[in-house]
Amino acid sequence: DRNDLLGAEDNDEAPVADQSATPARSGVFVNGTWAYEVLAMARVPFGFDLAARAYGRQGYPAPAFVTVAAPDATRLIQVGDFDGVRFTRVLVADFRVERTFPVARFNVDLSAGFFNLFNSQTVLQRDNDLIDPLKGETVEVVSPRVIRFGVRVRF
Known about the structure:
Blueprint: E1 18-19, E2 29-30, E3 35-44, E4 48-57, E5 64-69, E6 74-79, E7 90-103, E8 106-115, E9 123-126, E10 138-141, E11 146-154
Antiparallel strand pairs: 1-2, 3-4, 4-7, 5-6, 7-8, 8-11, 9-10
């Protein structure tokens, strides 16, 4: 099937997914059958507040295509099965710890947040254009682990 991935008629009931329209995210086809997000927060002894977040989703399709210039626009023509290859599933965990200290007439909150706690380097985008010399090169991965420390004064 040679569906035009940018919006041609699709009469054969094959899987279809919208492509991201931003230049930085071209070639990303949003189509997943599962996703989840779990959030939890608890106050533990000694006045600490803990929060955690786990997020996951099925990897998006990674179809091979060729870029073809047409009179009205540049088209991406699919080569092979649309849903045959997918990027790896995305699994990310975040964690936060915070404690409030009363100081005179103020409250001072000290916190530490860990984003992408396990430092997963899942590929989100890869060049799948068969005529591009950079075919197969990684374009985007999940952001690396970030640790953020914070101080907040409330009065």
